[in-house]
Design a protein that fits this description.
The protein is α/β, with parallel strands linked by helices. The protein folds into three domains: 121 residues, Transcription Regulator spoIIAA, CATH 3.30.750; 59 residues, no CATH class; 108 residues, Arc Repressor Mutant, subunit A. It is built from twelve helices and eight strands. The strands form two sheets. A six-stranded mixed β-sheet has the order 2-3-4-5-1-6. The chain has a two-stranded antiparallel sheet with strand order 7-8. The chain is globular and about 60 Å long.
Length: 310
C-alpha cells in the first residue's frame, strides 16, 4: 500500500501555491486539511518546519489530507530533513492520513532513492495541451465561442502550456470578464505572467549564487534549445565561469529543462529574463555570443557528418 504521492515537474505544478496564504502551516477548509509551503523557507528552517508539522498531525484524531508543497526531494537530501520527513510519512501511514507532496525542478528519475523506499507513488506533471487548456477555461466560465481562441492564445503565452502560468492567466481572464482575444493580445505580456516571472527572478536572486544566475540569464535569451557543448561555451565566454558544467548541473531541472536527449532551455518562467536584469550592452554581447556559439556548433556538426560520410 502506498503511503503518499509525489507530483514532480521541472517548472511547476498543476495546483499553484499563489492561492494560499504564505504561512508556515495552514489548516484547510473546515480545519480538515493541512498545507505546508516549503518554498518560502530557507534551507536551515526546513527541518524545524517539519518538526512543528509532525507535532500537529500527531494530535489529529480524524483522517486528514496533508499537503507539503515544493519539497526538496532531489538526490542528496539532507539527513536532518529526511529524518523528519520520513517521520511524517510514517505517521501518516500509521494514522491513515492522505499525504500529498509536490516538487518543482526534479524529474522522477533523480528523486532521492529514500523516497522510493518509503513507498511514495511518483507522478510526473507534463505541460497542458490545448484541449486541456480549453477544458480549464470552460471550468472558469469562458463562453463557448471564445474557448478555442483563448486556449490557443494561452498556450502561446505560457511557453507551451506551463500549468502554473495557465492557471494564473485563466484566473486573470475570468476576473476581466473574458474579453475576446485580438491580434494585439499576443503582443502584450499578461500582468499575471509578468508577476510570476518577477517572483521567479527574485527567488533565483535569493537562492542561487551569482555564477549560476549569470548562466541562467544568458540562456534566457536563447530562442531554441542548446546542446550541452553550446551551454558550456556560453558559460565560459559570456559568464566567465571556470567550470560552467558544474553550474549547469546545479540549475538544470528547476530552472532549466532538458529538451530531448541533449538539449537545454530555460523554463517558461525564465524566458527573456535577462532583458529585465541586464543593461542593453550586455544583452547585445550575449546575443552575439549565442549566435557565434550556435554557428560553431552547426559548423562542427556539419564537419562531423562529412567526415563520417553521412
Amino acid at each position: 500500500m502506498r503511503t503518499g504521492e509525489l507530483y514532480c515537474r521541472s517548472t511547476g505544478l498543476r495546483r499553484p501555491r499563489e492561492n494560499h496564504p504564505r504561512q508556515p502551516c495552514v489548516p484547510g477548509a473546515g480545519g480538515s486539511d493541512f498545507w505546508l509551503d516549503l518554498s518560502s523557507l530557507d534551507r536551515s528552517s526546513l527541518s524545524a518546519a517539519l518538526e512543528r508539522l509532525l507535532v500537529q498531525i500527531r494530535g489529529l484524531a480524524t483522517r486528514q489530507v496533508i499537503v507539503l508543497d515544493d519539497v526538496p526531494v532531489a538526490n542528496g537530501m539532507e539527513q536532518g530533513f529526511w529524518t523528519r520527513l520520513s517521520a511524517i510519512i510514517g505517521e501518516c501511514s500509521a494514522r491513515g492520513h492522505a499525504l500529498l507532496l509536490t516538487a518543482k525542478g526534479v524529474q522522477p528519475d533523480v528523486v532521492d532513492p529514500r523516497m522510493r523506499t518509503a513507498e511514495i507513488a511518483f507522478h510526473a506533471v507534463p505541460d497542458l495541451s490545448r484541449e486541456e487548456i480549453a477544458e480549464f477555461v470552460a471550468s472558469l466560465g469562458c463562453p463557448e465561442p471564445l474557448r478555442s481562441g483563448w486556449a490557443t492564445t494561452i498556450l502561446a503565452q505560457t511557453g507551451g502550456g506551463h500549468p502554473k502560468l495557465v492557471h494564473l492567466r485563466g484566473l486573470e481572464l475570468r476576473d476581466e470578464g473574458w474579453p475576446p482575444p485580438t491580434a494585439a493580445t499576443l503582443a502584450t505580456p499578461p500582468r499575471s505572467i509578468e508577476e510570476a516571472k518577477r517572483y521567479a527572478r527574485q527567488e533565483a536572486s535569493r537562492t542561487l549564487p551569482d555564477t549560476d544566475r549569470e548562466l541562467l540569464y544568458a540562456l534566457s535569451l536563447a530562442l531554441a534549445p542548446l546542446d550541452r557543448e553550446a551551454v558550456l561555451a556560453i558559460g565560459y565566454e559570456l559568464a566567465n565561469l571556470a567550470a560552467p558544467g558544474d553550474a549547469l548541473d546545479r540549475i538544470a531541472g528547476r530552472w532549466i529543462e532538458l529538451q530531448g536527449s541533449d538539449g537545454y532551455r530555460v523554463t517558461a518562467l525564465w524566458t527573456g529574463q535577462a532583458a529585465v536584469a541586464w543593461p542593453q550592452a550586455k544583452i547585445e554581447q550575449a546575443h552575439g555570443c549565442l549566435f557565434d556559439t550556435c554557428d560553431r556548433t552547426i559548423e562542427l556538426d556539419t564537419t562531423h557528418h562529412i567526415k563520417s560520410g553521412t
